[in-house]
Design a protein that fits this description.
binds uracil; single chain; 16 helices; four-stranded antiparallel β-sheet
Length: 435
């Protein structure tokens, strides 16, 4: 087989056979296929697309380039969730706690934040003592015992994706639906869950800017999972507005805990209940309807059972679980600054990516993989899209350990907020569901 012929075949829009796709992935990872040929292939995929069969095979080949986590020692259906990334998205811990409280098994590997989006692992590490690194044995034992474990994704998961992603980043081939879908799903397939719920975000704070693109991505990922024997579902959620009220690691954990005490923001609570219900419906397929699962999730939240699941997880992972009853344990930034409205009117739009960037400017996120983050930095929004503000009224409080960061972050935040005279029409945060 020659890579030249496979590039030509893809360029001519002909379907590649399974062994041809396997050849490409295997020999790109082992270094036999050079970057320039893989770049040409990726560009051909970007322009010509991939058939369902090609995409399912390509994704599994990428998954098999590294460790496939064996979760068979965990009893029952193992269920995972994945978000395509957003601002203020702290749903994983809330949903995981609800699903575990309802008997689901959540063995989850999560990532760190990069750019304007946050990552669950960074947020978790704002809890004193908590580790996000467990041995495989401890990970499995913890899920069997309490139904929930969240750890960082190991470097051995889908190394092909790591190498291909780095190449896409410099060859203008990132924003291709088949390449994004295979990248995300290779890591999900390697993580070993039986059922996967995807949260595809759409809007100014998300990768996908239109609902149509988000639907295409969701369908592509669902198809890949189904073709590889997984139970799949996807929800498409609005990221044209930050989720909840907080952006920043410790601030978001505080909001997670408030939500598990039934005092969370309505948008965040609603999205978590819908997603948890879909995950439970996958776990209890044929036994309970989605509506029954929604009630189960609601009951787990309202009764405090979900809160106890998170407490058990924090304890099991060495964290200070007193944080569940005393969020001051998370610490507070040294300085705060109130951002006021420059005019009176309704907030008609928030550029969510810009809001995320303002939080990064305060120290809450990292611009490169190696930069460090300030756990207590971030933003608490007092007013969001749809709210009326008076000129001079506080819209948000910024937090940082360096007061000199406030000026630029304030400018960025104020620029992100559009104020107009007419109240915007507010729709449901759940834009579509593919189940
Ligand atoms: N997230 C990923 O993991 N891969 C992509 O290609 C895009 C977003």
């Amino acid at each position: 087989m020659r890579m030249y012929d496979l590039i030509l075949k893809k360029r001519r829009h002909e379907e590649l056979r399974e062994e041809e796709i396997q050849y490409i992935v295997t020999h790109y990872v082992d270094g036999t296929i050079p970057d320039y040929q893989m770049s040409a292939f990726l560009m051909a995929v970007m322009l010509q697309g991939m058939t369902h069969r090609e995409l399912a095979t390509f994704t599994m080949a990428m998954a098999k380039s590294g460790t496939i986590v064996d979760l068979s020692a965990i009893d029952g259906v193992k269920v995972d969730k994945h978000s395509t990334g957003g601002v203020g998205d702290k749903t994983t811990l809330i949903i995981g706690a609800i699903v575990a409280a309802c008997g689901g098994k959540v063995a989850k590997m999560s990532g760190r934040g990069l750019g304007h989006t946050g990552g669950t692992i960074d947020k978790m590490e704002s809890i004193p003592g908590l580790t996000t690194t467990l041995t495989e044995e401890d990970f499995i034992n913890q899920v069997n015992a309490i139904g929930l474990a969240v750890i960082g994704q190991s470097d051995t998961i889908a190394p092909a994706d790591k190498k291909i992603y780095a190449l896409r980043d410099v060859t203008a081939t990132v924003d291709s639906i088949p390449l994004i879908a295979s990248s995300i799903m290779s890591k999900k397939l390697a993580s070993g869950a039986d059922a996967i719920l995807l949260d595809v975000k759409v809007g100014s704070g998300a990768f996908m800017k239109t609902l149509d693109e988000a639907r295409q991505l969701a369908h592509a990922m669902v198809d890949i999972g189904c073709a590889n024997g997984r139970t799949m579902g996807a929800v498409i959620t609005d990221m044209d507005i930050p989720l909840g009220r907080s952006i920043g690691n410790a601030l978001e954990i505080k909001e997670v805990i408030e939500t598990l005490h039934n005092g969370g923001p309505p948008d965040l609570t609603h999205e978590c209940l819908v997603m948890a219900a879909h995950m439970l419906a996958m776990v209890h397929k044929g036994l309970h309807t989605y509506d029954e699962c929604f009630h189960m999730a609601q009951n787990a939240l309202e009764s405090g059972m979900a809160r106890e699941s998170l407490r058990a997880m924090i304890d099991a992972q060495g964290g200070d679980s007193r944080v569940i009853d005393d969020v001051t344990i998370l610490g507070e930034a040294q300085y705060s600054y109130a951002v006021t409205a420059p005019a009176s009117g309704y907030i008609t739009h928030m550029n969510t990516e810009q809001c995320g960037i303002a939080a990064v400017m305060l120290g809450a996120g990292r611009l490169t993989k190696d930069s460090s983050i300030d756990m207590t930095a971030g933003i608490v929004m007092q007013k969001k899209t749809g709210d009326f503000v008076e000129c001079g009224e506080v819209m948000a409080i910024l937090y940082a350990d360096d007061a000199s960061l406030f000026e630029k972050a304030t400018d960025t935040y104020v620029e992100a907020v559009t104020i107009g005279s007419a109240a915007p029409i507010m729709g449901d945060i759940i834009l579509d569901q593919i189940v």
